[in-house]
Each structure stands twice: as C-alpha cells, then as structure tokens.
Design a protein that fits this description.
The protein is mostly helical and 157 residues long. It has eight helices and no strands. Helix 2 runs parallel beside helix 4 and helix 4 (73-85) packs antiparallel against helix 5 (89-101).
Length: 157
C-alpha cells in the first residue's frame, strides 16, 4: 500500500452469501475515516464495510457520498453491491436514493449494474423479496426513493 493509500484495516467482504459481520466501534471509526481517503481503493473498502453497519442518518449521508463518488466508479460499484448484499429494504433504499440523485451517466450505469446484476435476485425467493421491498419503497417518505422504486417495479413487472 502506498503512503497515499495508508488506511486503517477494517476487514473486507467478498461473498454474496451473507452480509459482513456488524462493525464494532473501532471498525466503524476506521471505516468512517477511510471513507474520505484520497485513494479510491480505500474509499471502496470503507463503503463495503460501512454497508454492514446499522444505518443512521449520518451513515446514510456518508454512504450516499460513496455511492455518488465523483472520482471513481469502483467506489460506487463496491458500495452499491455491499448495500444490496444486506438483502434488506434499507440497503436497497440507499441505492435507490443514490439513483434518484445521480448526475453522471457513468455512475448511473454502475448503480443500475449493481441492481440488475445482484445474484441474490436470480432465484424465485430473491425475486419475491425484491418485489416486496420495492412495493414497500413505493410509499417511502423520500420522493426520489419513491420514484426509483416505482421505476424499478415497472421494469420488474
């Protein structure tokens, strides 16, 4: 790791089977620090780790920043995949929120790629879970999330 990439080690995830273990306070602090690192690989790792944490409003804001990373779409892709790997409505909501706020085609392509290519949705059980979550998010309090949930729902339909 170069001096530019110096970061606190917070572990990693690489299996689609289950989300990473929840972060302890030290790991959470390290991941928060790494989310603002100059090196894309460190930010991407932070996104993967933060996606496993309990999502507070502050953490959602940080994850949105990573999902919409202006410097490298690998950060976008890794963070989106990790959020979707959670398998819950909260992770999907974050990705849909990012889609509603995206300003570049390249970033949008990576967000959609993570959504469309999620292997968890390739089974009947996964598809049913996605449809249930989208249905729930069509009534979300955030208008952007609602719109993206409706758009995605129509594409599934």
């Amino acid at each position: 790791m170069t001096s530019e990439e110096t970061a606190v080690s917070v572990g990693d995830t690489d299996s689609w089977c289950a989300p990473a273990k929840p972060l302890d306070d030290q790991e959470l602090s390290a991941a928060l620090t790494n989310s603002a690192a100059p090196a894309w690989s460190v930010r991407a790792g932070a996104g993967r780790r933060l996606a496993a944490a309990a999502l507070t409003d502050e953490l959602v804001d940080i994850l949105l920043r990573l999902l919409l990373d202006p410097d490298d779409t690998a950060v976008t892709q890794d963070t989106a995949e990790a959020l979707l790997k959670r398998g819950d409505t909260t992770g999907l909501r974050c990705v849909l929120m990012a889609l509603s706020r995206v300003t570049t085609t390249c970033t949008m392509d990576h967000l959609w790629g993570a959504l469309d290519g999620n292997p968890a949705w390739m089974t009947d059980e996964g598809t049913n879970r996605l449809i249930k979550q989208l249905r729930e998010l069509t009534t979300d309090h955030d208008t952007g999330v609602r719109a993206e949930a409706n758009n995605t729902w129509e594409l599934c339909g």
